[in-house]
Amino acid sequence: LADMVAPFYAAGAGSPEAETPDTIVIFKCLYALCSAFMPTAHALSSPRNPWPQLVYHEFRRLLKYHDPALEAHMTEVDPKWSAPQLGKAGGASGVVPSACFFRGFAGVLSHVGLLRLWDYLLVEADPYIPWFVLAAALNKHRGIIFESSSPAILRDAVEQIIKSLNSTSNLEAAIAEAV
Length: 179
Fold this sequence. Notes:
Blueprint: H1 2-11, H2 23-37, H3 51-66, H4 68-77, H5 99-102, H6 111-124, H7 129-140, H8 142-146, H9 151-164, H10 168-178
Helix pairs in contact: 1-2, 1-6, 3-4, 7-10
């Protein structure tokens, strides 16, 4: 929850005359954002819920549709790359952080990048924009992934690609490709 709320607080922290937003307003914004565009934000609350497996499976299908060679290489390197491992801290999967799907990259991107991505999420009114942004980023940096030869190296490569989205130019390019 802190990862989801922090960007709203950080948005006004840049200028000296900025006021700290009212907590009630922040949580109303968060609730509206989550209920409209991140309906899966609650999905990790139950270990018996099949939703995380379905979400990762659908992302794998999306990647396979848009870049079959990339998906095939990732599967060859780590056949379980798209299986969430919910027992790990933060609900992280072996390769792709669950925050990319369930929290719209909250806790993964910087506050500035996160707010920029959420702006596009609101403008496009499509809850799958984060999925397409991730697929576009993986496609753009596919060379790094194709150099991966083990699950650990693949995990590091995907982490590096996701961190590259903190750069405004990389995030803008991924968003442009996604929309």
